Amino acid sequence: MNAHGTVFKYGDNVDTDVIIPARYLNSFDAKELASHAMVDIDPTFVERVKDGDIMVAGKNFGCGSSREHAPLALKTAGVACVIAKSYARIFYRNAINIGFAILECDAAADGINDGDEVKVDFDTGKIVDVTTGVEYQAEAFPPFMQNIIKEGGLVNYINHKKG
Amino acid sequence: MSMTMTQKILAAHAGLEEVHVGQLIEAKLDLVMANDITGPMALPIIKQMGGNVFDKDKVVFVPDHFVPNKDIKSAENAKAMREYAIEQKLTNLMIQGKCGVEHAILPERGLVYSGMCIIGADSHTCTYGALGAFSTGVGTTDVAAGMAAGTAWFRVPSAIKIYLHGKPNRYISGKDVILHIIDRIGVDGALYQSMEFTGPGVAELSMDDRFTICNMAIEAGGKNGIFPVDDKAKEYMLEAGVKEYDIYVADEDAEYEQVVDVDLGAIRPTVAFPHLPGNGHTIDEIEAGEKIYIDQVVIGSCTNGRMEDMRKAAAVLKGHKVAETVRVMVLPATQKIFLQCVHEGLVDIFVEAGCAFNTPSCGPCMGGHMGVLAKGEKCVSTTNRNFVGRMGDTEALIYLASPETAAASAIAGYIANPEKVGGNH
């Protein structure tokens, strides 16, 4: 699996209230949610984002509310993966559970600029900033997450176990 | 091998003698909870997993976020969740007018208690650690899987020991304690970790203080917050009708990533400024600066909507009037607390002071309804988050504070020191 797109870069502590504000949570329709993604800190994000684009951020990405609507909104808006220094733990679980790729890499989070063209290889964790020519190495997914992803997400994983 | 309190609970629920930091385990769940934002989204996922809950005694849906229904979509969601709960014959049905805010109603009803392993599709599910349970927030897919299968996977967390000692001063409550701690360690200071509160200072904290403190463990990034089970906790559980429970005690030589020493006696009334719960300022710093005039005050939520919070706010407000142009929303967190406010005459105090006294709801805390902020408005709130846009417009400013600081600020019209307003409680 790979991603290749343009970078949208944000800072530390991007919380789930700005990823998808609670006022839109009277719906859990993925397309509806995606149409409001990031609106409170980047009102033109939804107009600009294209399928395959990449989000880069600092530490503690996805902090705050446990709303799974947040990774769903980003994924459905077209974001192929997030690269951040660290993730809030509930967001991390939610992302894996819905099959949304998230990578941790301090150097990439610092070095990649907003608007850069970036390629990511999920299997190896290799990140290439095509614009600057700099390569970064993130950790690939640990084996237990590969299992959940192999089963096609947590839903299938549980179904498989229940036989 | 020595273990923390959290690790012991997780080991027991995974059927293991011991666990170590970083180990991946599958644990049996004693209670699984969702609300009217996360619950309806879980229903189609549960259907994909067979459609039924694993145990009708151990699954609870609480309508509290957009309930009383704020619009038609919210009403449809709440209806779908309620109908599913009825269809599944859940033992603990939660219906508006007979329940309250999730993290207040579950302890009050005796549904959460010491030694349990609990997940909830709400980040503040960590509240129940106050009773010595392992309890953590998850998303919709995890909660759906938990409801269908009765299990969840966890990575065994390391822990931070928060060593409490000293005695808090009169106007200091659990909110000041946790805002002080988050200010010190940061909003990711406990990322993926347990926050284990311990030390002689624990005995100085009421159960309501402990619920407030554990409630905001997530605001430091914590997986869970947990208190040891003492006589106060046992008394609380007895009153809530809990008959049997397991008590886990951390090993004396359990390993902690760090120890945070907190002198409760040195904590000052603390306010978290926009836009992070870790942006704490003491009341002394605030008083030394220019006055911060406010438009609204919210007293309530899963953080500070309990009986003691109501009493403390009312004690400050008694005999005073809310500043002329300030709006105050008081929301007791459960119907039982609401009724107790009536019996104790607190409603008279609130209404005579000029506060709106409301039915239990999470509404204003997350900008849902019942107190949404306009552009440029400033609010002192006893809730848990002051993120950009959290309570309404992205240019509204939220200051997190204790019920007493919130009440004092309501009277003054600017962020004020409760020590100078007074009140007996």
Q: Can you walk me through this structure?
A:
The complex is a heterodimer of chains A (163) and B (425). Chain A is α/β, with parallel strands linked by helices and 163 residues long. In chain A, 33% of the residues lie in helices and 20% in strands. Chain A is built from eight helices and seven strands; from the N terminus they run βαααβαβαβαβββαα. In chain A, strands 4-3-2-1-5-6-7 form a seven-stranded mixed beta sheet. The model of chain A has no long low-confidence stretch (mean pLDDT 91). Chain B folds into two domains: 5-244 and 251-264, Aconitase, domain 3 (2-Layer Sandwich); 268-421, Aconitase, domain 3, CATH 3.30.499.10. Chain B has helices at residues 5-14, 39-48, 72-87, 102-108, 140-149, 174-185, 207-215, 231-239, 283-288, 301-304, 307-317, 335-343, 346-353, 403-412, 418-421, and strands spanning 24-28, 31-35, 59-62, 117-121, 134-137, 151-155, 159-165, 194-198, 224-226, 258-263, 270-272, 280-282, 296-300, 327-331, 356-357, 378-381, 397-400. Chains A and B meet through α5 and α8 of A and α2, α3 and α5 of B.
Spatial sequence of strands, sheet with the most strands of chain B: 15-14-13-16-17
Distance between the termini of chain A: 28 Å
Q: How many domain units of chain B? A: 2
Q: Pairing-aware structural class of the strands and helices of chain A?
A: alpha/beta
Extract low-pLDDT stretches of chain B. none
Structural class of chain B: alpha/beta
Main sheet: strands, sense, barrel of chain A = 7 strands, mixed
Annotation, overall tally of beta strands of chain A:
7
Mean pLDDT of chain A: 91
At the third CATH level, what is the topology name of the largest domain in chain B?
A: Aconitase, domain 3
CATH class identity of the largest domain in chain B: Alpha Beta
How much β-strand is present in the residues of chain A? 15-25%
What's the helix-strand series of chain A?
A: EHHHEHEHEHEEEHH
User: Which regions of chain A contain 5 or more consecutive residues with pLDDT less than 50?
Assistant: none
